[in-house]
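User: Could you write out the 3D structure of this protein bound to calcium ion? I've included everything you need below.
Assistant: Certainly. Input first, then the structure.
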Amino acid sequence: PRVTLLAGGVGGARLAHGLALALPGGGAPDDEGRGLTAVVNVGDDTERHGLHVAPDLDTVVYTLAGANDEDRGWGLQGESYATLEQLTRLGEDTWFTLGDKDLATHVVRTAALRAGEPLSAVTARLAAALGVRARILPVTDDRLRTLVDTPSGRVAFQEYFVRRRHADAVLGLTFDGAGTALPAPGVLDALTGADVLVVAPSNPFLSVDPVLAVPGVRAAVESSTARRVAVSPIVGGRAIKGPAAQILETLGHEVSALGVARLYTGLVDVMTIDDADAALAGPIRDLGLDVVVTDTVMGGPAGRERLARELLAA
Ligand code: FO1
Ligand code: CA
């Protein structure tokens, strides 16, 4: 089948890995376009030390390459930090942890972008070099930055997430540049032409909304004839990772898989929820969605592949 995943963050990367394991050839597209396409958030992108860092793209690529640091959820395994230590000595602000090998990715990407290569093209090159066979697309090649309104003002995404350890209340989000961004080549076709369209268990506000904010993307999902399946990032009233529960609460939504299902009504056909939330199946069906109840907590590769197979069968 043609499978398209909307992804951001660690939940997106893990499910992308599961789908790549479940599909023939690691999700490599065939002549008819069957295979896996991940459409990835770029609102988390940032500039550090003059380099363009794309955390969500890198987390997907590194995870599919089997090279991601699985304990932290981001960055490469077996990293060293000699460069960051030297940058600190030279007086640079080094609150954003960049490993020596990870920096090589940012050097290649930044050089390519400066030479006029689109982000989607350099991403394809990096993914291929690391042995990734699925298609990884940034949602846009244009500049798009998530800005977070907090009680102490508006801050850039990584300032909120890493520097301030997502401790601030999120009062609102702005996707700077989204209004004039164009979907990257292949994005709209991957959405409208999919057989199965999966919304990863990523943060609905921080990871999925910035993808949908690119003009044409939400409409392509809404009008897609694909079987559209979302996985709840909230299990038992808590987020698997990150601030999704806090943000739901602050923005006035129910902190549960039902709260997430309400956000995705009109966008997906099927809500996948954890066994722990089986009691919410009825209320979610009342919204007009189909419900699959399963173990959604992926853990390692076997769990990721098992969940992916269930989604493909939904
Ligand atoms: N997350 C952290 O919590 N602290 C870091 O220092 C950090 C560095 C970092 C470097 C490269 C990269 O690709 C990701 C990195 N992340 C770090 C993760 C990342 O900022 C967030 O998890 C995502 O943006 C949220 O989706
Ligand atoms: Ca479970």
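The CA atoms of residues 17 and 64 lie 5 Å apart.
User: Perfect, thank you.
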